[in-house]
Design brief:
Mean pLDDT: 95
Number of domains: 2
Radius of gyration: 20 Å
Number of strands: 10
CATH architecture of the largest domain: Alpha-Beta Barrel
Structural class: alpha+beta
Oligomer: single chain
Low-confidence stretches: none
Number of helices: 6
Largest sheet: 4 strands, antiparallel
Strand order of the largest sheet: 1-6-7-5
CATH topology of the largest domain: N-terminal domain of MutM-like DNA repair proteins
CATH superfamily of the largest domain: MutM-like, N-terminal
Strand content: 15-25%
Order of helices and strands: HEHEEEEEEEHHHHEE
CATH class of the largest domain: Alpha Beta
DNA sequence: AAGGGTGTTGAAAG
DNA sequence: GCTTTCAACACCCT
């Protein structure tokens, strides 16, 4: 369920629920989720440590413990649930963190794409993927001038450029469609064709859309079971994404669905040039 | 009922 | 390099 607003919501919810808890043991039932080190080392290194803080960068979540940092990416369908340790494990609960207070944090991931990796405190910026992240839309310095060389020197479709996490950290398939609709840009336009004014629009709407989505707790589409902290309400604000066949809220033209860079893409063929 | 699609990303191939 | 395609996996919907 991960784009920046959903990950932010998960992070905030987790902070309220598990800060200060001590990990007694970790049960890994799907080994491929743990990256970089053997599972035995992963569980050993986390056991006995207290969760002191939880932070987010792009779509990555950092669990800061005393002496170790766990870097998690939810990929397509990763979710966390807090449950009593007496609850039976469910089918897709692949990593279970058992706390000393007999609660458990369950990592649920139907497709098993999510990742967890351990870093020494202070080196988490070097984690794979994190090391190449571009600026978040809210970061100081994010704006037209930052985007200019990254966008205007690329022939790739503007949508693909904005999905590239080394360019903008945090935008994903939903919010890119929404940003490009508000900026009135055809998702297939090559980066080289994007004007300075367009870049300004992209920067402004990236901030605006993500801020509103965070405020509403992210989006819940595809009727997911509500996961920890993620029963968002931004889906009610979506203007194009998932709206194929519906009228454009601006001009009434029927919203179309196409494919850009292999991703399902919703847009208004009249408004977005 | 097989095939295409799904809020991601990185490895491989061109 | 840069850009595109595809695989990782399980499930849902035509």
């Amino acid at each position: 369920m991960p784009e920046l607003p959903e990950v932010e919501t998960v992070k905030e919810t987790l902070k309220r629920q598990i800060l200060g808890k001590r990990i007694d043991k970790v049960d890994v039932r799907c080994e491929r989720i743990v990256r970089g080190i053997p599972v035995s080392e992963f569980t050993h290194d986390l056991s006995g440590h207290v969760i002191l803080d939880i932070t987010r960068q792009g779509k990555y979540i950092f669990f800061h413990c005393d002496g170790i940092v766990m870097v998690v990416h939810l990929r397509m369908e990763g979710k966390f649930f807090l449950k009593p340790d007496t609850d039976p494990y469910e089918k897709h609960e692949h990593v279970i963190f058992v706390f000393s207070d007999h609660t458990t944090l369950r990592y649920h991931d139907v497709r098993k794409f999510g990742t967890m990796e351990l870093m020494s405190p202070g080196t988490e910026q070097l984690a794979k993927g994190v090391d190449k992240l571009g600026l978040e839309p809210f970061a100081t310095g994010f704006g037209k001038d930052y985007l200019k060389p990254l966008v205007q020197k690329s022939k790739r479709p503007i949508k693909s450029i904005l999905l590239d996490q080394t360019v903008v950290a945090g935008l994903g398939n939903i919010y890119v469609d929404e940003v490009l609709f508000r900026a009135k840009l055809d998702p297939k336009r090559p980066g080289t064709s994007i004007s300075d004014h367009d870049l300004e629009q992209i920067a402004v709407f990236s901030k605006q859309v993500l801020a509103k989505a965070i405020e509403l707790g992210g989006s819940t589409i595809r009727s997911y079971v509500s996961s920890l902290g993620v029963t968002g309400r931004f889906q009610n604000e979506l203007k194009v994404h998932t709206m194929v066949g519906k009228p454009c809220p601006v001009c009434g033209t029927v919203i179309e669905k196409t494919k850009v860079g292999g991703r399902g893409t919703y847009y208004c063929p009249h408004c977005q040039k």
